[in-house]
Design goal:
With about 425 residues, the chain is an alpha+beta fold. It has helices at about 5-15, 30-40, 45-55, 60-75, 85-95, 105-110, 120-125, 145-150, 160-165, 175-180, 195-200, 250-260, 260-275, 280-290, 300-310, 315-330, 335-345, 350-365, 370-385, 390-400, 405-419; strands at about 185-190, 205-210, 215-220, 230-235, 240, 250. The chain has a six-stranded antiparallel beta sheet. The longest helix is centred in the C-terminal third of the chain and has 17 residues, at about 370-385.
């Protein structure tokens, strides 16, 4: 049998099975290529976002929906471990295609032993498959590792040119333009939508993150009713950031020193996720944090809180300690709450930090302000968690002497725990 004849038979078999003979970056639109890479990701979180995106954007691209179906088949056949929530979302995505050709895949899921917690979603998805097709999709016939390799193609743009193009990105640039000008990203993964865009009522919290190694990363988010990803923000490899606020690039320290409330919220959120600060960035945060704020400007105060959290989670002990002491000395209720939450997340609290917390509680225990009492209550919880019995007597006294019932309650809980 000649090679030519065998090739014709192979293509015929693929067509008869309803599978694409190949999947490649050129054949998929930018939106669908990004979704496919999410579906083929190594984490359930990435795969789940890919499934959600198929549903949100009502994608009907055959190559993409076949990849989706194969991922579902791998989960249900036991070839891949997948958490029930992810499988539920992927099943819902299969149902959104309405194509009867995928019914056999969902039937495999219904007959599997490992899908009981997703069964309701699978049944509902299967009932939605009403549009007939000449071909039935057969699970197990696609090599997803080869599909992923075919969707990754080396860029033809040099690193310097790519960096120049990166700095010219526009705030409202669609994903298709990004692909067209920059080429395919080196990595596609998930991130967290910026704090600014999380304020919008119909935005999903998980972002898609495109990384161009050595140059920077671009985040996009999905919004209910939209048909494509929307630009969230951009961070370059040399420390410039384009926020969603005005679409201009700034250094991180410029944003900290001069940014408005929206920009501060966004850069603070980014720094919290980055979990590291340069000394210059830390100094800028401390300077901005101590600048006067109009008491009525709660939004700006909340935005500054993101910078404070960035300094707390920086990972540098001296930064963490200095910010903690500063907040304990002058912080309002929300700032004290954030400080308490931070130290509750740690295994131990240093003795000098505990002393500073106790001092702040002693100086403010007569407050009748709800937010301040809540912040002080978080400090009580940190002291309680420390297990240090030296604070038992004072906590017992505060459980009766504090003016606000919230502070009395948590002082009492700490006193009983520390006896």
């Amino acid at each position: 049998m000649s090679f030519r004849f065998r090739l014709i038979l192979l293509v015929g078999l693929l067509i008869s099975l309803g599978l694409p003979s190949s999947a490649s970056a050129e054949k998929l639109a930018a939106r669908d290529h990004a979704i496919a890479m999410l579906l083929l990701g190594n984490s359930d979180a990435s795969t789940k976002l890919g499934g959600k995106a198929v549903t949100w954007f009502s994608s009907q691209e055959p190559q993409l929906t076949d990849i989706l179906a194969e991922v579902v088949w791998e989960a249900c056949s036991g070839k891949r471990q997948m958490d029930p929530d992810t499988l539920s979302w992927l099943s819902k995505a299969v149902g959104s295609t309405k194509q009867l050709r995928y019914a056999e895949v969902l039937e495999t899921c219904l007959n599997a032993d490992n899908t009981s917690r997703s069964r309701g979603h699978i049944v509902k998805a299967k009932s939605a498959l009403t549009e007939t097709s000449a071909n039935t999709f057969k699970g197990g016939m696609m090599d997803l590792s080869q599909v992923r390799a075919s969707l990754n193609q080396p860029r033809k743009i040099g690193q310097n040119q790519l960096a120049d193009l990166f700095r010219k990105l526009q705030k409202d640039a669609p994903l298709a333009d990004i692909y067209s000008s920059l080429g395919l990203p080196d990595e596609i993964d998930i991130g967290t939508v910026s704090a600014s865009n999380r304020l919008k009522p119909h935005v999903w919290m998980t972002a898609i993150k495109l990384t161009y190694k050595g140059v920077g990363r671009i985040q996009f988010y999905a919004e209910e009713g939209a048909t494509d990803w929307q630009l969230d923000n951009v961070v370059t490899g040399n420390g410039l950031m384009m926020t969603s606020n005005d679409g201009r690039f700034y250094t991180i320290t410029e944003l900290i020193a001069q940014g408005n409330a929206m920009q501060l919220r966004e850069v603070g959120d980014y720094l919290v996720s980055r979990k590291s600060l340069s000394n210059e960035e830390y100094d800028a945060i401390m300077k901005r944090d101590k600048a006067p704020v109009v008491p009525a400007d709660e939004y700006l105060a909340d935005s500054l809180g993101w910078l404070e959290r960035a300094a707390l989670v920086d990972g540098t002990a001296s930064h963490e300690r200095a910010m903690t002491m500063s907040l304990l000395e002058r912080g309002d209720g929300l700032q004290l709450r954030h400080t308490g939450e931070h130290w509750l997340s740690k295994d131990t609290t240093d003795s000098d930090v505990l002393e500073a917390m106790m001092a702040r509680i002693n100086s403010s225990f007569e407050t009748t302000d709800d937010k301040l009492a809540d912040g002080l209550a978080y400090l009580c919880r940190v002291i309680q968690k420390s297990g240090n019995a030296k604070y038992s007597i004072r906590m017992s006294e505060l459980s009766e002497a504090a003016s606000h019932r919230t502070l009395r309650k948590y002082a009492g809980l700490a006193a009983r725990e520390l006896k």
